[in-house]
Design brief:
- The complex is a heterodimer of chains A (147) and B (451).
- With 147 residues, chain A is α+β, with helices and mostly antiparallel strands.
- Chain A has helices spanning 44-54, 112-133, and strands at 20-23, 33-38, 59-67, 73-74, 80-81, 86-93.
- Chain A has a domain at 20-93: 2-Layer Sandwich (Alpha-Beta Plaits), CATH 3.30.70.
- A four-stranded antiparallel β-sheet of chain A has the order 1-2-6-3, covered by helices on one side. Chain A has a two-stranded antiparallel ribbon with strand order 4-5.
- With 451 residues, chain B is an alpha+beta fold.
- Chain B contains 13 helices and 14 strands.
- Chain B has helices spanning 2-13, 19-22, 45-60, 65-72, 91-99, 160-177, 188-191, 193-207, 213-216, 327-332, 337-361, 400-403, 434-445, and strands at residues 79-82, 101-105, 219-222, 226-236, 246-255, 259-263, 294-295, 313-320, 374-381, 385-393, 410-414, 418-419, 423-425, 428-430.
- In chain B, strands 2, 3, 6, 8, 9, 10, 11 and 12 form an eight-stranded mixed β-sheet that branches.
- In chain B, strand 9 (374-381) and strand 10 form a beta hairpin.
- In chain B, helix 5 (91-99) runs parallel beside helix 11 and helix 6 (160-177) runs antiparallel to helix 8 (193-207).
- The relative contact order of chain B is 0.17.
- Chain A: InterPro entries: Nucleotide-bd_a/b_plait_sf, Ribosomal_uL23-like, Ribosomal_uL23/eL15/eS24_sf.
- Chain A: This is Large ribosomal subunit protein uL23m.
- Chain A: It holds the Pfam family Ribosomal_L23.
C-alpha cells in the first residue's frame, strides 16, 4: 500500500481475525433485533464496524452482555467441567429492516411417494439388521465358535 | 425476654393481617350465622383474592389523599424506570403502549375564542398549529397553516411585536450580550439554552398575566420533580425466591422538567371522555427489550408540590433536552428519524406522569377511574427547535383486571419540532419564526371557559 498520509484516503484493509455467529434468540426479540455470539474481546464499536463495513448492514444500536458458562458439570473423575463463557450482542438494524431467524429444519411434507420411499428404506434397514443379528435360537451368543 | 419481644415485633410487622380488620364482614340481617367467606390467611387463590379486595377497600376508605398515596405505593418491588428523555430507538411507540396513549399528529383546534374584532397583524398567520382532526383519526401536520376554520379563528389580540422583542431580548442577553466563559464539557444546554428558556417563559408569563387571570393565580416552578408509579400488564417472575409467580409489571417515571406552571383551576377538556381517535400500538415483547431496566426504590407520586397546595392542576411544562440528545448527535450517526421520536417520547411520558399524578391528587386511581378528563400541555425544546404537546388523560385503569373492559384511551396531540430562529449573530436574531411564538402564547393563554 502507498504510505498513508493524514487526510488522505484510507486504502489499507485490516482483516479482523474474530468472527460472529448469528444465533436464534432464546427469548423472543423485537423484529429489528438480531442476536449474535461474538468473541469476548469485541466491543460494541467493533461489532458495529464489522457489520457495517464488511456486510453493509445498517446498524442503529448494539448492546452486549457476557454470558457466564456453567461450571457445575462433572466428568467421570468428578472434576468440575466448565462450559466456556461467550459474549452475546443484540444488534438493532436500521432503515426499518427486520430480521426473523429462519426455521432451519422445516417439516418435510409427506407426499405418497416420499412416504412409500421412507417405508421401503425402513424395511431395507430392518432386513440388514436382521441379517447381522444371527440365529435367535442361540440367545445372542456369537456363532464363530462351538456348535 | 427474647421470646415475647420477638413475637411482638413479628406481630407489629404483619399487623395488617390481623383478624380484627378482616372480621368486619357485614352480616345479612335475616341470618343468625356469620357470612361464609374465603379464608384470609390460607395459601389459596380465594384467600389471595380476599386479601387483594381487602387492600383495595383500605385504599378506597383512606382518610386523606396522603394516606391513599401512601397505601398505593406501600409495597416496594423491582420496577421499570421509564425515562421521558431517552435515546432508545422507537421509544415513543413503546411508551404509548405502556400508557395506553393514542398519538394524534397536529394540535387540537382551540375552542371558539372570544370575538376579537380587529384583524390580527399579518393575516397569513391564522391559527398556526391547531389543525382539524378528521374523524378517522389521521390529522394534518401542524405546518399546514392554511387550514380554514369554520368559525373564523382570530389570533388572540396580543401585541406580537412586544412579545417578539421580549423573546429576542432574552435570546440576545443569554447568547450575545452576557460575557460567559466557555461551557464545561457536555454542559452546553445548561450554558445558554437553559437560562434562555427560563427567561423567555418568565417574561412571557408575566406579560400575559393581564390577559389570562389564570396565569396571575398560577405557580411557576423551576426544576420541579414529577413522579408517577403504575402497573400495566403481567409477567411471570423468571428467577429469585418468587420464581414462577405471576406479577403485575410496575413502572415509575421520575421526570425533571425545566419549568412548570401549575394552576388552581383545571384546563377544559378537548374531546369527550370516551372519544376514540386512533389505535394504541401493541407491543408483545417485554419492556426490557426497549431497553428498560428494573430497580426497586420508593414508589413516589408527585406533581411538583404537595397535596395541600391550592395550585394542584397542571397547565404547561417546559422540557429542555440534555446534551446527550442534541440534534447533531443523531445526524452524525444517520438517525434523522429518531429526532422526532425523542420529542414525542418526552411529551407522552412526561405529560402522562403529570396528568396521572394530578388525577391521583384528586383521589382517583386505577380501581377508581377518573370521572373527568385531565388536560395538560408541554413544550419540548433543545434551545432552538420547539415542539408542542397536548395531553388528555381519560383513564388511569391500566392494570390487568381494570384494562379488560375499559374502552377509554389517553390521547396525546403533538407537533413536529420547528426552529424558533435561524441564527444569532452580531447582536441580531435572524429568521425569527412568529408561528412558534404565537403557539407558545396560545399555550400560555389557555384557560377554562369561565375565566
Amino acid at each position: 500500500y502507498p504510505l498513508f498520509q493524514p487526510g488522505g484516503p484510507q486504502l489499507r484493509i485490516f482483516r479482523p481475525d474474530f468472527y460472529m455467529v448469528l444465533v436464534r434468540p432464546g427469548v423472543p426479540q423485537p423484529e429489528d433485533t438480531a442476536q449474535f455470539r461474538v468473541s469476548m474481546e469485541m466491543t460494541k464499536l467493533d461489532i458495529r464496524n464489522y457489520l457495517e463495513k464488511i456486510y453493509k448492514v445498517p446498524v442503529v444500536a448494539v448492546r452486549t452482555r457476557i454470558q457466564h458458562g456453567a461450571h457445575n458439570r462433572r466428568n467421570h473423575k468428578n472434576q468440575r467441567i466448565k462450559k466456556p463463557d461467550y459474549k452475546v450482542a443484540y444488534v438493532q438494524l436500521g432503515q426499518g429492516q427486520t430480521f426473523q431467524f429462519p426455521n432451519l429444519f422445516p417439516e418435510k411434507e409427506q407426499t405418497p411417494e416420499t412416504r412409500s420411499f421412507d417405508e421401503f428404506r425402513k424395511k431395507y434397514f430392518e432386513k440388514e439388521l436382521q441379517r447381522q443379528r444371527g440365529d435367535p435360537r442361540r440367545g445372542g451368543v456369537p456363532d464363530w465358535f462351538g456348535l | 425476654m427474647a421470646a415475647p419481644r420477638g413475637w411482638r415485633l413479628a406481630r407489629q410487622g404483619r399487623c395488617w393481617l390481623s383478624q380484627a380488620e378482616f372480621s368486619a364482614a357485614p352480616t345479612p340481617p335475616d341470618s343468625l350465622y356469620p357470612p361464609i367467606v374465603a379464608s384470609a390467611t390460607a395459601k389459596s387463590k380465594a384467600a389471595k383474592r380476599r386479601r387483594l379486595e381487602h387492600f383495595y377497600q383500605r385504599v378506597h376508605e383512606a382518610a386523606s389523599i396522603e394516606e391513599k398515596l401512601r397505601l398505593y405505593g406501600l409495597l416496594q418491588r423491582p420496577k421499570y424506570m421509564v425515562y421521558p428523555q431517552t435515546f432508545a430507538i422507537n421509544a415513543d411507540r413503546w411508551y404509548q403502549s405502556f400508557t395506553k396513549t393514542v398519538f394524534v399528529p397536529g394540535l387540537p383546534p382551540r375552542a371558539a375564542p372570544e370575538p376579537a374584532g380587529a384583524a390580527e397583524p399579518g393575516g397569513a398567520v391564522t391559527g398556526p398549529g391547531p389543525a382539524v382532526p378528521e374523524p378517522a383519526g389521521a390529522a394534518e401536520p401542524a405546518g399546514a397553516a392554511v387550514a380554514p376554520q369554520p368559525a373564523a379563528e382570530a389570533a388572540p389580540d396580543v401585541d406580537l411585536d412586544e412579545l417578539r422583542s421580549l423573546a429576542c431580548d432574552a435570546l440576545l442577553q443569554e447568547s450575545f450580550y452576557q460575557n460567559k466563559k466557555r461551557p464545561f464539557l457536555y454542559r452546553d444546554q445548561d450554558h445558554t439554552p437553559g437560562p434562555f428558556l427560563t427567561q423567555l417563559v418568565s417574561l412571557l408569563a408575566a406579560s400575559l398575566c393581564r390577559r389570562n387571570p389564570l396565569l396571575a393565580a398560577s405557580s411557576l416552578d423551576l426544576n420541579p420533580e414529577v413522579n408517577y408509579y403504575w402497573h400495566h400488564g403481567e409477567e411471570v417472575i423468571a428467577h429469585g425466591h418468587r420464581k414462577g409467580r405471576v406479577d403485575p409489571v410496575r413502572f415509575q417515571i421520575d421526570d425533571h422538567p425545566r419549568l412548570q406552571i401549575r394552576v388552581p383551576k383545571q384546563l377544559p377538556e378537548i374531546v369527550p371522555l370516551e372519544a376514540d381517535l386512533g389505535n394504541v400500538p401493541v407491543i408483545d415483547h417485554k419492556p426490557s427489550k426497549l431497553p428498560l431496566f428494573k430497580k426497586q426504590y420508593e414508589n413516589k407520586v408527585f406533581i411538583g408540590s404537595k397535596v395541600a397546595d391550592p395550585c394542584c392542576y397542571g397547565h404547561t411544562q417546559f422540557h429542555l433536552f440534555p446534551d446527550k440528545l442534541k440534534r447533531q448527535r443523531f445526524l452524525n450517526v444517520n438517525l434523522e428519524d429518531q429526532i422526532e421520536v425523542t420529542y414525542r417520547a418526552n411529551g407522552i411520558a412526561s405529560l402522562f406522569a403529570w396528568t396521572a399524578a394530578q388525577a391521583m391528587y384528586q383521589g382517583f386511581w386505577s380501581e377508581a377511574d377518573v370521572t373527568r378528563p385531565f388536560v395538560s400541555q408541554a413544550v419540548v425544546t433543545d434551545g432552538k427547535y420547539f415542539a408542542f404537546f397536548c395531553y388528555q388523560l381519560n383513564t388511569l385503569a391500566l392494570t390487568v383486571e381494570t384494562i379488560r373492559n375499559n374502552p377509554r384511551k389517553n390521547i396525546c396531540w403533538g407537533t413536529e419540532s420547528k426552529p424558533l430562529y435561524d441564527v444569532v449573530e452580531d447582536g441580531d436574531v435572524k429568521g425569527f419564526n412568529d408561528e412558534i411564538l404565537l403557539q407558545l402564547v396560545q399555550f400560555l393563554l389557555n384557560r377554562p371557559k369561565e375565566l
